[in-house]
Amino acid sequence: MPVITNIQDLKRIYKRRAPKMFYDYCESGSWTEQTFRDNTADFEKIRLRQRVAVDMTGRSTASQMIGQNTAMPVALAPVGLTGMQSADGEIKAARAARDFGVPFTLSTMSINSIEDVAEATNAPFWFQLYTMKDEGFIERLIERARAAQCSALVITLDLQILGQRHMDVKNGLSAPPKMTLPTVANLATKWRWGIEMLQAKRREFGNIVGHVEGVSDMANLGAWTNEQFDPSLDWNKIAKLKERWGGKVILKGILDAEDARMALKVGADAIIVSNHGGRQLDGALSSVRALPGILDAVGDQIEVHIDGGIRSGQDVLKAMALGAKGTYIGRAFIYGLGAMGQPGVTKALEVIHKELDTSMALCGETSVAALGRHNLLVPKDFSGVWQA
């Protein structure tokens, strides 16, 4: 067993073990990947203020996200195709999150279905919804999430139209993989992944196959999915989805203060400042650079969360000190999952927790609630001076 001290250690193992198609799906962005790179680089520009001679006994990273107690202010973000990174990946990740005491969010485009995860974990989880043209399917999906006792609906707003991710196009991304010559050659070197995948509960999109009329195999699934993302999504439709759900709603994909105000108007319980991990609008601001302006606009009226670029406990600390009330990790837990399965997800959470706890102490704080701008050194031009 290699010694794992940080998230990059898990990433190196993940790269060796995962098929290229699925590694590239995780570790790439759209177009030039500028926003993908900025998501991590902009966290590095913020510095921490070291404080000394403070009693550090009795520290706690415990927090809450939308009223739910969490071991630390971190949730597992919704990631499509998680069950292709490791056999039954969504189940493994959900179990690791449950045992650690943080929320897990299941993607609409998961391999394991809502019912699979509910049966395997016996614990509430959050469900992420993509709005699609097939309203009947969306209604049934919401009812399935309700039946599974999902405790929050996370509605993604920034995928009305699919951004082009060059690596996915070049790799011919699909689940399960299409057996082209390059893919077969690559899979031949990933025997551990292949053996585990042969025993997986599912190898295609479990929330869709068997739940949409006429979609029974990969050929018609691909055609259906490509046509289904809803370009007509607007705030009226979002309000109706919230009403239909009737429970806690988190809106994901907010990068603009005006959109944050609109989310407030429709009565969302929280928003996630997010650019879809740099996989949609390339050239958009990084999530952490957009965060201060959104907090200035709505931060005392709605719970503001953030995802994108978080690879360490120090990143979590920086986001919380800026004013966020919660953070999400996507790639960081996928690295662990692809490297070592469920124990790898647990290790990613342990690494981030240790980094958060230690850094919080060295900043002179004993609780997440006490974190604030006084813990940071932020460049004067961090939010940018932009001309519209």
Could you explain how this protein is built, in words?
This protein is an alpha/beta fold. It has a single domain, classed as TIM Barrel, CATH 3.20.20.70. The protein is 44% helix and 11% strand. An eight-stranded parallel β-sheet has the order 4-11-10-9-8-7-6-5. Strands 1-12 form a two-stranded antiparallel sheet. Helix 13 (257-265) links the parallel strand 8 and strand 9. Helix 5 crosses helix 6, helix 5 packs parallel to helix 17 and helix 16 packs across helix 17. The longest helix has 21 residues, at 342-362. It is globular, with a radius of gyration of 20 Å. The mean pLDDT is 95.
Features:
single chain; TIM Barrel; two-stranded antiparallel ribbon; alpha/beta; 388 residues; 8-stranded parallel β-sheet; 17 helices; globular
CATH class: Alpha Beta
What structural class do the secondary elements suggest?
alpha/beta
> In order across it, which strands form the biggest sheet?
4-11-10-9-8-7-6-5
Task: Provide the helix percentage.
Answer: 40-55%
* Unreliable stretches covering 5 or more consecutive residues: none
Strand content bin: 5-15%
Specify the biggest β-sheet: 8 strands, parallel
CATH architecture: Alpha-Beta Barrel
Span of the ends, CA to CA: 53 Å
General form: globular
Number of domains: 1
Mean pLDDT: 95
**Fourth-level CATH superfamily:** Aldolase class I
